[in-house]
Amino acid sequence: MPRRRLRRGDLACTVAVAVAVAVAAVAVAAVGAVGGGDGGADFDYRKLSGIIIPGFASTQLRAWSVLDCPYSPFDFNPLDSVWLDTAKLLSAVNCWLKCMLLDPYNQTDHPECKSRPDSGLSAITELDPGYITGPLSSVWKEWVKWLTFETALKLRGGPSLVFAHSMGNNVFRYFLEWLKLEIAPKHYIRWLDEHIHAYFAVGAPLLGSTEAVKAALSGATFGLPVSEGTARLMFNAFGSSLWLMPFSEYCKADNIYWKHFFEGKGGCHHRQQCDEMEYKSEYSGWPTNLVSIEVPTVRDTEAYPSIMDTTENITSSMECGKPTLLSFSAREVSDGTLFKTIKDWDPQSIGLIHQLEKYYQGDPVLNPLTPWERPPIKNVFCIYGLDSKTEVGYYFAPSGKPYPDNWIITDIIYEFEGSGNSVTGKPNNSSGDGTVSYNSLSWCKNWLGPKVNITRALQAEHDGSDLQTKMNVDHHVGQGILPNMTRTPHVKYITYFEDAESIPGWRTAVWELDKANHRNIVRMPVLMRELWLEMWHDMHPDAKSKFVTKVGLNQGQKKGPVRNR
Fold first, then answer.
1. What does the alpha-carbon distance between residue 58 and residue 124 come to, in Å, rounded to a whole number?
2. How much of the chain, in percent, has pLDDT values that exceed 70?
3. Nearest residue to 497 (alpha-carbon basis) of 487, 488, 484
4. pLDDT per position as a tens digit, 476-502
5. Residue 545: how many CB atoms within 10 A of its CB?
6. Which Gene3D superfamilies match (predicted)?
């Protein structure tokens, strides 16, 4: 595994290791309590353990050094809370920033303060996974070491359930790609079968999120008591922030697996290969161009001075000429074209270009800004919300202020419930979850096979009498799959797309939850209920269907949790 600084990047691994034991003790204790058989599998389901990989900014950070904060009653001492200590943020924001910001070029700590991820289950339970998310994250661009899974296997004697939320799915993807390069090909699938029973991808931004563009150019506070400029400073300081950038569904990286053997590790960029649809579609498979930005007709590198430069007379050259409106697709965002184009007016974009080239295009394992195929895991469940108002595009214009406040948003393009959006382009059939657009969330439908069973049920308590089911629906990869079922106004449904036939021994399911918000979905009772039902079904000795039935007690289950309780 290539070495990287374990600054805040070891956060994902720290949390996963801590939770592997704690969650196993809770979740698996419940499984063991019911006894039951092995459901026809070759291992005891009572030995299952759980591994949680939280989303962006969902874990605590603590100080690892002493920092005196002048003119403030607060100082930072070792083990003091940094993320998130609201009192220190409000009363000593400049001091607090020293403990949060990294150097954008080499990802090192501020010379006066360092902070590290907390350990133990409290590191995530006191910040609900996904509830506070945004640009104040620690640097996640590390991998979940396979030691986590080896530990879980030894402690419980069985494989793990992987539960990843939002950006945590990106972390898990990186781990899988790293593992593929580290062990012999014939052992790769066997290792996954032995160590991972099921993967639950919740709110996964599989094609990125447009909110990352907003955060990079103008800042996104997500309700935190900081200015948008301060939020932008932090977002652009973290090398992992660009991991959330939107990218084209038509462009793939070269095969790093073969480069690994024939050219050696590292030292080469991932060359993107785009098929012809990239240039025919105009919007890289997205509903619209993601960024339209006004720039001065005459280039003037002093038009947007750094925050240390004088701000006098900086708007005169911009006011004299008519600005030019430039538009950028998802591909042009992810390959750096956007930032290279605006660097003459926004010199801080050079730092983002450096991060893209070093940590993404030059990564020795994977360029994560490329679509990913179904993970080779026996049971994969992709779960997300839909039909919430979601941002899918922005118009920016110069503000005349210095960095980080030099751009303002003049207009926002939205997806709306049930109608995608009204802009010219490729509207989605539904809207996203309030943070990630529908086309990005639903990319996992491409993991389904040619025949799919679709079921729609109420989210609320029900007896199964109003289920809607369509069996063996034709599915063509890349063309989407629609339920074509009825809806009652103001009623929330959950729609299941299930395939257990296309790959023998493997199951793939997509769950769409109406009105489930991206940041709150992990706390929804309906999601917890469905996850528990699925685990119950897997271990039940009399289970006859490949997936849990949707009607509960009266259809195929003798006892256990049901949807009408």
1. 6
2. 72
3. 484
4. 888 888 888 998 899 999 999 999 999
5. 12
6. alpha/beta hydrolase
Task: State the DSSP code for 402.
Answer: P
Q: Are 4 and 142 spatial neighbours (Cβ–Cβ below 8 Å)?
A: yes
Closest among 399, 404, 526 to 462, alpha carbons compared = 526
Residue type, 374: R
CA dihedral 90, 95, 99, 100 (to 10 degrees): 50
SS3 53: strand
Q: Could you count the other beta carbons within 10 Å of the beta carbon of residue 319? A: 8
Tokens, residue 31: 């499984």
Helix/strand/coil (H/E/C) assignment for every residue in 68-137:
CCCCCCCCECCCCEEECCHHHHHHCHHHHHHHHCCCCCCCCCECCECEEECCCCHHHHCCCCCCCCCCCC
Question: How far apart are the C-alpha atoms of 183 and 194, rounded to whole Å?
Answer: 14
Q: Which residues are 165's β-sheet partners?
A: 202
Q: Which helix (H) or strand (E) holds 279?
A: helix 277-281
SS3 277: helix
* Two structure tokens written together for 40: 């026809």
Q: Which residues are registered as beta bridge partners of 110?
A: 113
Residues 68-92: b if buried by 16+ CB within 10 A, e if exposed: ebeeeebebeeebbbbbbeebbeeb
Q: By the 8 A CB rule, do 326 and 430 touch?
A: no
Nearest to 139 by CA among 83, 81, 80, 64: 83
The pLDDT tens digits for 515-527 are 999 988 988 889 9
Structural Rg of the chain based on CA atoms? 24
Helix 185-195 with 168-182: angle, nearest 10 deg: 140
